[in-house]
Amino acid sequence: MSKQKRKICIVTGSRAEYGLLHWLMKGIKKDSNLKLQVIATGMHLLKEFGMTYREIEKDGFFIDKKVRMLLPSDSPTAITKSTGLGIIRFADVLKKLKPDILVVLGDRFEILSATIAATFASSVICHIHGGETTEGAYDEYFRHSITKMAWWHFVATPSYKKRVIQLGEDPERVFVVGSPGIDNIVKSKLKNKQQIEKDLKINFNKKNLIITYHSVTLDKKSPKSDLKIFLKFLDKQKDTNFIFTGPNADTNGRVIKKMIKNFIKKNKKNSFYFPSMGRINYLSTLQYVDGVVGNSSSGLIEVPFFKIGTINIGDRQKGRIKAKSVIDCEPNTNSIKKAFDKLYSSKFKSKLKNISNPYGKGHATKRMLKILKNKTLPKNQKKVFYNL
Fold first, then answer.
1. Does domain 193-352 have CATH number 3.90.190.20?
2. Partner of 191 for a Cys bridge, out of 195, 234, 334, 346, CB 3.0 to 4.6 A?
């Protein structure tokens, strides 16, 4: 009798998350002892975010189930209802798929929904990128909640391992693997400059920046005032292309999107907007820009690998470990100006070539696969709180 394959189910709800999970999915699919299951949800299934589930399918993956959960609004009430709807629909999907292990990454509310449903279904949950902090977003709460529901933890750095243990998790179930986002870079065949210009329909300028700006969801005020200051500053920059990627499906995300699109209408020659650039296009473009500006986790995790600077605005990523290529600034004109001056300074540029990325040099996928394949599944998931 042939050995039954271990079913490993990957949940993905956004373009960025899929980029981090891509090579793990390939590794699972390739392994003869494992069976890959894929659940696509959240922004992947909406036209306004680029219908990015198609990229998953284009990469050769079969999507076992699509979980539609996002309501056509980003108000706090709508986000709450979307989270609840997600729990309901994930419950049905998990009942049908019956995975041996459910793999989730990060801290978004879509992932929280999946994890809650999986907990009630007694699924073995493996959580990637736990132990991190983002003090400006409610993702902070979701991430640590997911940690408490997960059995195994794949963390990016020793400091994050310490924090997961601080939450009461057994050190023997916490593994430092680095960030799978680095694998996504080193394992991918990236496009050259001419191909990027052709595919994205842009011509690189003297200076070029990728702009990724998301809601600071724990701010009670609207993002309008801070973003208005930032866009007004950008409007004064000369000989610079601004390549905007769309905001997430967070509270006030549509406000940000509308303001960016209005900015682009006034700056058509040097401003470009992509709901989703796609995994390869985004990484390939990073090779040819001067830096990344905004408040995305990618600016902290993946961008330092390319030896370029990141301007990190505001509190959204506050608390995360950062390479010395990351320039923190406040959302005001004076602080943003100082950050831009530093980004383009010869002193800062000369130091970039020696930057060390705290999120590793790759091989996270190999480390995760070994554990997912070989670790004995628990007979029960009764946890003893690990006291320091």
1. no
2. 195
